[in-house]
Amino acid sequence: MLLNGNGSANGNGGANGNGNGGNGHEDGRRVTFGRAGRILITGGAGFIGSHLAERLLAMGSTVTAVDDLSTGRFENIAHLAERPEFRFVHETVMNESVMDRLVCESDMIYHLAAAVGVNLIIKSPVQTIETNVLGTEAVLRLARRYRRKVLIASTSEVYGKSDNHPYQEDDDRVLGPTARSRWAYAESKALDEFLALAYHKEYRVPVVIARLFNTVGPRQTGAYGMVIPRLVKQAVAGEPLTVYADGRQSRCFCDVRDVVRALTGLAESADAEGEILNVGSEQEITILELARRIIGLAESGSRIEFVPYQTAYDSDFEDMRRRVPNTGKIRRTLGWAPRISLDDTLREVIAEFTAKAAGAPAAGARKIAAARVIPA
């Protein structure tokens, strides 16, 4: 069901829904609400949000996705448009009158709406700070009003450039100077965490914070600087794969399906309330090796081209050589661990981009063309 900001149906008919059970836990730990419920996802048309909506629908929940489509894409959720248990609201989280109604109607909030991607962060630092901080404050204020639980999606960026690997949730943070806009995202998300924990401490709002490490998978776009879709697109097109600096910087990539399994588990866990937990894979790979692996799996004739950071971004850009999580806390809390290998994820992303390059319509493209999404 497609709605405008006033809550009226927009003309395409169908609604979205869900399916069966499952509580998201790896074992029988205590939960804070039932397996089904009325769920609100901010940023619900985004890469992670759309996969989260699918999982929640499969668990038997009714899902409302709110998104202003500034970085999210309607095509990510178009395949849900005929399901009666799903609705999409085209609106910003900073529209308080709309959000008041949506939070009131929900049992639980997953707050994923945020400015995303290195490119956007560098080019639009004001948007980055305001979207992250003001949006989170608006959600928390309404959660306090209606006594709703909130899961805040944070980021490994908050660790900054610390060399203390693997990162643990209570580690000290090391960031660059405020004169470098590259750090605006990390600081704004850290402030989100401070604010959420303050609401929990002072107002007893039930919150849980998930620090996500390099989530990847189908539907992710390279438009905002995400490395895997960018490299895969280049490999499928037979273009040089652009690897920044010497390519020896390393990351740990976790499939989005594993990530949303962690998020639903954390949302249901009483033990996770008021806590920060890393969510990601501990399997480390350099970007150079990643590029080589993509070329091999795609059976591409592409070569690798090294590009200085100053050319890709700007003269004062800083990057981290490593970013590796310690996931012991979430393993102890939920019994959670990633199940999907990086190679399997890469094969799916390669297949997705190959289909697009061949002219196959994206999933739900006909529904997108037929739908009339009314701006709020």
Total E-strand runs: 14
Strand content: 15-25%
Q: Main beta sheet: strand number and arrangement?
A: 8 strands, parallel
- Which secondary-structure class do the elements indicate? alpha/beta
Number of helices: 12
Q: List the secondary-structure elements in sequence, H or E.
A: EEHEEHEHHEHEEHEEEHEEHEHHHH
Large-scale geometry: globular
Q: Largest beta sheet: what is the strand line-up?
A: 1-4-3-2-5-6-7-12
Indicate the percent of residues in helices.
Answer: 25-40%
First-residue to last-residue Cα separation: 15 Å
Overall pLDDT: 88
Rg calc? 20 Å
- Poorly predicted ranges: 5-34, 362-376
Write the layout of secondary structure elements.
Layout: E1 2-3, E2 38-42, H1 47-58, E3 62-67, E4 86-90, H2 96-104, E5 108-111, H3 118-123, H4 125-146, E6 149-155, H5 184-203, E7 207-212, E8 215-216, H6 227-237, E9 241-244, E10 250-252, E11 254-255, H7 256-268, E12 276-279, E13 284-286, H8 287-298, E14 304-307, H9 309-312, H10 328-334, H11 342-357, H12 365-370
